[in-house]
Amino acid sequence: MWIVVSALLLAGVVTVNLAVLRLNLRLDEATQQRAKLRSENAGLQSQLSSALASPRIQSLARRQLGLVDAETSTYVDLGR
Predict the structure, then answer these.
(1) Tell me: the pLDDT tens digits for 16-60?
(2) Which end of the chain has fewer CB atoms at under 10 Å, N or C?
(3) How far apart are the first and last CA of the chain?
(4) DSSP sequence for 47-67
(5) Cβ contacts of residue 61 below 8 Å, gap of 6+?
(6) From CA 72, how far away is CA 75, in angstroms rounded?
(7) Which one-letter DSSP state was computed for residue 71?
């Protein structure tokens, strides 16, 4: 009788351990995905910051230094 009870308890322990293992694997996948998404977010934030800074820098250069865009400039050919 006690052998049957011991076998049932051991089977229960194994079942619980397998369930915990599966949960840990899912948690690990979620953690890896979260790290990947955080990395992508950091890259996108950097791109956004660069994109927003460029017009601001150009505006400051025009106002404070009087610089103009190369596309709006004309060149005179002085010959040789």
Answers:
(1) 999 999 999 999 999 999 999 999 999 999 988 887 888 888 888
(2) C
(3) 112
(4) HHHHHHHHHHHHHHHHHHH--
(5) 67
(6) 10
(7) G
